[in-house]
Specification:
alpha/beta, 3 domains, 6-stranded mixed sheet, 5-stranded antiparallel sheet, globular, disordered N terminus
Length: 358
């Protein structure tokens, strides 16, 4: 009787221990206990995740070194680096083709991005840049390949794309696209990611934006006053000095870079009774844009005043072509530790003050 109770106790203990495991693969084996009684034990073996990988999805132009610095950063971290995939299509295809029976752990995707034009990363090869609208269109049309079951619930898709963390709509769409039998975490920062500078090989910076019509700058004194008026709560930045800095000369110093945003519309008057309008000056062009429902709605999405664009119009047959271009001044304020030694805050992807997670 005692022997029977002892056997039952051992079996119950083993079952309780087995119940504590959560894993991917089951292994069945027989275990012989002291009195030569064999029982079947089911254990679970957790497969390891694959080492982190990084996709460098662009090539630098001019003096910009964003992609080359990011590539060097991930090589030094001993990540597997892929630098020949420039579209989401190619990234998904690569993940499917190179799966080695280990689920992917961290997948880092490096891409230029801004709040107005979306990501530099293409949807499909030689296709449009990724925005909420273009990604939705390609998903509906079935242009993108389907990601196979290569992701686990512990996988993390980390985007190093400036300001992407604020675009919750796009993060949700990425969540859907990268979800297979399991759903990974989609991680991106609302701040700008900076690679390979003098004081840190990677840090984050808070952006502030100003605009002027391309080739018609009012001067840095007037621009600094505009920044001060637009961002009255920011007391740590000397706007005039920041606009004259092209790089961070000491840790935490604000500096500026600029880029252009072009817009263009072509309006065909062939099938209307209206004549193609002509304009004497930019004010008349802006008035016409404001009165056109479709164009005014589209330009309002940029949240940039019309007068901050340089406007030009052309007539080609029965078509009116309107072109505008604004120069964006982006002042970056590096995020530094609030106490202790003067240094950048480490851009840890698990820090919810620095990164948003979908």
């Amino acid at each position: 009787m005692k022997n029977t109770i002892k056997r039952a106790g051992i079996v119950i203990t083993l079952l309780l221990l087995i119940g504590q495991f959560t894993s991917c693969t089951k292994t069945v084996k027989e275990v012989e206990i002291a009195d030569n009684t064999a029982i079947t034990v089911v254990t679970e073996v957790i497969k390891t995740l694959r080492e982190p990988i990084a996709f460098i999805t662009g090539v630098d132009a001019g003096n910009n070194d964003f992609y080359s610095s990011a590539r060097q950063y991930f090589i030094e971290k001993e990540f597997e680096v892929i630098d020949d995939a420039f579209s989401l299509e190619e990234i998904i295809t690569w993940l499917n083709r190179n799966y080695d029976d280990r689920k992917y752990g961290e997948i880092h995707i490096v891409s230029h991005s801004n709040p107005w034009k979306g990501m530099s990363l293409e949807n499909v090869i030689k296709g449009e840049r990724i925005t909420v609208e273009t990604l939705k269109k390609n998903a509906i049309e079935g242009s993108l390949p389907t990601l196979e079951n290569v992701i686990s619930a512990n996988s993390k898709i980390v985007f190093h794309a400036c300001g992407l963390g604020e675009n919750t709509g796009l993060l949700k769409m990425f969540k859907n696209i990268f979800t297979t039998d399991s759903s990974p975490s989609i991680i991106a920062s609302p701040y700008y990611t900076v690679f390979g500078k003098d004081f840190s090989n990677q840090y984050l910076a808070k952006p502030y934006y100003g605009f002027y019509p391309t080739a018609n700058s009012p001067g840095k004194t007037d621009l600094s006053k505009e920044f001060a008026k637009k961002y009255p709560a920011e007391k740590d930045i000397n706007w005039f000095d920041a606009l004259n800095n092209e790089t961070e000369r000491y840790i935490g110093e604000a500096y500026t870079f600029k880029f252009n945003i072009p817009v263009e519309w072509e309006i065909d008057f062939s099938d209307t009774d209206e004549t193609v309008p002509s304009f004497k000056n930019k004010e008349e062009i802006m008035d016409w844009i404001s009165e056109d429902e479709l164009i005014s709605k589209e330009i309002s999405n940029y949240n940039i005043p019309l007068e901050k664009f340089r406007w030009k119009t052309y007539v080609k047959g029965n078509k009116l072509i309107i072109k505008g271009k604004t120069t964006v001044l982006c002042v970056l304020k590096p995020i530094i530790k609030p106490y202790g030694d003067l240094e950048h805050v480490a851009p840890e992807i698990d820090n919810l003050r620095l990164y948003n997670v979908e």
